Amino acid sequence: NWNTNVTTLSGDIGTVGVNTDNTYRIIYNNGLSNSAVLDGITIRDAYNPSSFNGNQGAGVRNDNASPTFRNCIITENYGFSGGGIRTEGGSPTITNCTFVGNTAYYGGAIAGNFGSTNHIVTNCIIWGNTGTNGYNSIWNNQSSSTTINYSVVMEGYPGTGNLNADPLFVSAAGGNLRLQACSPAIDAATNTGAPTSDLDRNARPFNAY
After folding, report:
1. How crowded is residue 130: how many other Cβ atoms within 10 Å of its Cβ?
2. Which residues in the chain come in under a pLDDT of 70?
3. How far apart are alpha carbons 86 and 88 in whole angstroms?
4. CA within 13 Å, CB half, 197
5. Looking at residue 33, what is its pLDDT?
6. Which of 63, 65, 127, 183 could form a disulfide with 29 if both were Cys (CB 3.0 to 4.6 A apart)?
7. In the prediction, which pLDDT does 106 show?
């Protein structure tokens, strides 16, 4: 039960709290199909300053891979391109995930490269990430694409049901990514593929609005 048994994959393998000695990357996927599923995991604290082609991406890197990510939190990762996830070839499916506090030169949360890349993002919150040279949330490079629906995206993003309103985390700085009762993200997602309860075990959808 990922609500009550939090599992974190952390790159903070050196001096605690010093990110420059952390591991470059948490997860590397090569040649996987969407039958490869990562569910209910927190991915954090990768630090990858490399700008060499083929070595970018911090939290997750996908090469010709289309894995499935569900109910994951991807946070506090630093990469030269693609702080949270970088994909070069493939169509990763990303559902019910939260990206917050990731940093990269381009694409703080998600970065894609090549026309064979398409991230499929649904029911996600992408907020408070930083692209130091632009594209805080999403960077689509060299004809890559990212399809986003029913998600909250800082700066906004085209798609069905997307919002660019502050999701109102209880305390992002303190690591509490639960939503305040007045959050515009509550009941803003699609029911398809969504869990039946939130982090506080409240039934969803609540249909309060």
Report:
1. 17
2. 2, 199, 206-209
3. 7
4. 9
5. 96
6. 65
7. 94
Task: Identify residue 125 by its one-letter amino acid code.
Answer: I
For the chain, state the CA radius of gyration. Answer: 16
Contact 126, 110 (CB under 8 A): yes
Residue with tokens 């007045």: 182
**According to the model, what pLDDT value does residue 64 have?**
97
Task: Report the C-alpha gap between 139 and 104 in whole angstroms.
Answer: 10
pLDDT of residue 209: 44
Per the listing, tokens 């996600």 go with 124
Which residue is it, tokens 């109102």? 168
Distance between the two ends of the chain, CA-based, in angstroms? 28
Q: Cα–Cα distance between 140 and 158 in angstroms, integer?
A: 13
Rounded to whole angstroms, the Cα distance separating 80 from 14 reads: 20
Residue-level length of the chain: 209
The predicted pLDDT at position 203 comes to 77
Following DSSP, what letter does each residue of 43-90 receive, concatenated?
Answer: EE--EE---STT---SSEEEES---EEES-EEES-EEEE-SSEEEEEE
Residues paired with residue 99 on neighbouring β-strands, in sequence order: 74, 126
Q: Is 80 exposed, middle or buried, given 0-12, 13-18 or 19+ CB atoms closer than 10 A?
A: buried
